[in-house]
Amino acid sequence: MVVSSENNLENHEPHRLCWLPLQIFLAISKKWPFNFIMICKFYEAVGYMGEENLGKALEGADLVIIPAGVPRKPGMTRDDLFNINAGIVKGLCTAIAKYCPHALVNMISNPVNSTVPIAAEVFRKAGTYDEKRLFGVTTLDVVRAKTFYAGKANVPVSGVDVPVVGGHAGVTILPLFSQATPQANGLSHDDIVALTKRTQDGGTEVVEAKAGKGSATLSMA
Length: 221
Ligand SMILES: NC(=O)c1ccc[n+]([C@@H]2O[C@H](COP(=O)([O-])OP(=O)(O)OC[C@H]3O[C@@H](n4cnc5c(N)ncnc54)[C@H](O)[C@@H]3O)[C@@H](O)[C@H]2O)c1
Ligand SMILES: O=C(O)C[C@H](O)C(=O)O
Description:
Blueprint: E1 2-4, E2 15-19, H1 24-28, H2 32-39, E3 43-47, H3 54-58, E4 63-66, H4 82-99, E5 104-107, H5 112-126, E6 134-136, H6 139-153, E7 164-166, E8 173-175, H7 189-200, H8 202-210, H9 217-220
Parallel strand pairs: 2-3, 4-5, 5-6
Antiparallel strand pairs: 1-2, 1-4, 7-8
Helix pairs in contact: 4-5, 6-7
């Protein structure tokens, strides 16, 4: 997904939202872009198909969100996606460097621990790398840590904060329950170990529940 602000809000001109080929929203339902228009009245949704239109879709973009690629099936790790998704991400990042080198890039495609370095390397080679503009999307780890912690501590999730550092796969996901607020009295070491493991395995839980039909796609949308 690509967002461009070539027009400005004050004039109530629409911004441009482009749907790249095979992108998740279109793949789920062709109605999605239209629902989005109703929600965001300042956005205009434009769909582009085919690699030959990648330049048109990306030109002038301020924000590019990359969810393209294959998801895990039960029994796979995120690393098992590397061989397919690395090439997809590399191609998209090469086009970003060419058509919108100053865009913010949010990387959803897994393995995020590897696709972000791939993007960085493509941008570095193109001379466009800016570490402040490239992000691996790991918000789900924070959401999961907060949800599981709130459940265990029996506090409303809306008031909970749990910092999560590290990467986005297995033991590289490090929820810092020692820094969580509010501090829950009465959580044992075993509770913290169990909460940590459940946070680290949250994506796997979803992949197994969907039984081969994808991953936490809608959460990212
Ligand atoms: N970072 C995260 O928190 C997070 C969360 C959910 C999913 N993911 C990752 O996002 C990716 C997509 O997962 P999903 O569950 O949405 O899968 P999905 O199969 O539902 O959607 C993937 C989309 O990518 C498209 N695609 C495939 N090859 C492409 C290409 N060469 N160019 C452009 N688009 C292409 C497919 O047509 C499909 O529409 C996976 O790698 C998954 O692991 C990451
Ligand atoms: O776990 C996955 O494969 C998808 C995503 O990274 C997630 O955390 O839900």
